[in-house]
Amino acid sequence: MKASRPHWIKDKLLNIIVQMGLAKLAELPEVPSALDLVNDPERRQVLELILIRQEAGRPFAAPPGVPAERSPRCGAPSTPRLETWNSAPMRRRRNWRSSRSPRGEIENLLAKAYGTPRAIVQKAAALVEPSGRAQ
Predict the structure, then answer these.
(1) First to last CA, the chain
(2) Which residues contact 53 (CB under 8 A, 6 or more apart)?
(3) Which residues sit opposite 19 in a β-bridge?
(4) Mean pLDDT, the chain, integer
(5) Are 17 and 31 in contact (CB under 8 A)?
(6) Exposed e or buried b for every residue in 67-92, given b needs 16+ CB within 10 A?
(7) What is the distance between the alpha carbons of residues 43 and 114, in angstroms, rounded to a whole number?
(8) For residue 73, pLDDT beyond 60
């Protein structure tokens, strides 16, 4: 909704009852996060693991040793493609802006996901893939 119909949020045309993300949106301070509603530590861990998947969005990645001028890492010199993507006409056309997460944030999320105990991973997998395919 934020990208396709931003005025629905601004004009309060929606009744949003919960936010699904690790962090709440600044535009919706009064709407609780799903994490705010989970009191059990194990269930919270399951939900956090599920939500980590959406935090990275559509990241650019490259293997180690890529020259800085070709690297998608934050802090790398801007490329013509990124300049076009972030230009005012493109932002208006998309109705959203590209946000670059600091490299450390993504690394921390990955470390947390990969460090999650197997039992929690299995419970999250059962919720995401209820058919039992995720073993």
Answers:
(1) 33
(2) none
(3) 33
(4) 80
(5) yes
(6) eeeebeeeebeeeeeeeeeeeeeeee
(7) 17
(8) no
What global pTM score does this model have?
0.66
Alpha helices in 11-102 (DSSP H): 41-55, 80-85, 88-94
126 burial (CB, 10 Å; 0-12 / 13-18 / 19+) is middle
Q: Can you give the pLDDT at residue 40?
A: 97
Please check whether residue 20 is in contact with residue 48, taking contact to mean a CB–CB distance below 8 angstroms.
Answer: no
- Residue range 74-93, pLDDT digits in tens: 545 456 766 776 777 776 66
Residue 112 confidence (pLDDT): 92
Distance CA 57, CA 77 (A): 21
Nearest to 100 by CA among 51, 54, 60: 60
